[in-house]
Prior knowledge:
The protein has helices at residues 9-21, 24-31, 35-49, 65-92, 103-120, 173-176, 199-204, 222-230, 240-249, 276-292, and strands at 54-57, 60-63, 97-101, 126-130, 144-148, 158-170, 190-193, 216-219, 235-239, 259-269. By secondary structure, it is an alpha/beta fold.
Amino acid sequence: xxxNDLPPLGPLVAFEATMRHGSVSxxxxxxxxxxxxxxxxxxxxxxxxxxxxxERRNRAVVPTAAARTFVQSVDDAxxxxxxxxxxxxxxxxxxxxxxxxxxTLLMRWLIPRLPALTSAVPGLNLHLVxxxxxxxxxxxSIDVAIRRNDFExxxxxxxxxxxxxxxxxxxxxxxxxxxxxxxxxxxxxxxHTSTRPSAWADWAExxxxxxxxxxxxxxxxxxxxxxxxxxxLGVAIGPRALVHDDLEAGQLTAPFGFxxxxxxxxxxxxxxxxxxxxxALVSWLREQARTDA
Length: 293
């Protein structure tokens, strides 16, 4: 097959843009070229075809009948080339693994550790979705999800336990200086979250006496109550994983330590358990949890 009749690609692109905009200047702006460069490419195309494509009238260009016929085929050809290029690129790129994660865990634990995941599993391409509660895998096109097992897990899912939930009151080191025991919690504001409304009551049920009354403030999201605690507004119940980095940085402290609350974080999926991406991700997540413990 001979391609001797094919004109050069660059002038074809310049011609199509000029036809679409009806202006050499606008075509030049779109292609990040000068007006003169686009004009020269169109002239080169005209010489290759042996036909005039535009009539020059003052500063305007008027397409000829040949140009109006030719541009339809050029547009189809360029669209086909563009689609083929996208398909070729996609064939060389890893298929993304869509991961749904509880928002607070995603923001405060997973995202800060993603550079380490890229180094440990360089071929893994994650697409992150912030969401909590039961997972609609098919409707939301989710591949894997990280959730705390505080709801009934469907039996058709493959699950991997990642780490137990450890919780305890957290506050700034300055506020913690006045807390020698739970009775001292009467002197500092108690921070609640609407997404875990029973967090304080669940933690306090292990003590023989009720918690003393204290000023209270409720936040809509869990991460807001933890940020408020880190800002010195009071004491919040903090899961150890979600406050680990703040503890390491000295922004928060846990005056009474942490204890298991009976729940755990799981990775859930409908993909085959032997899927290499899933096994690599689970292994890395577990290693991160062991490192943070």
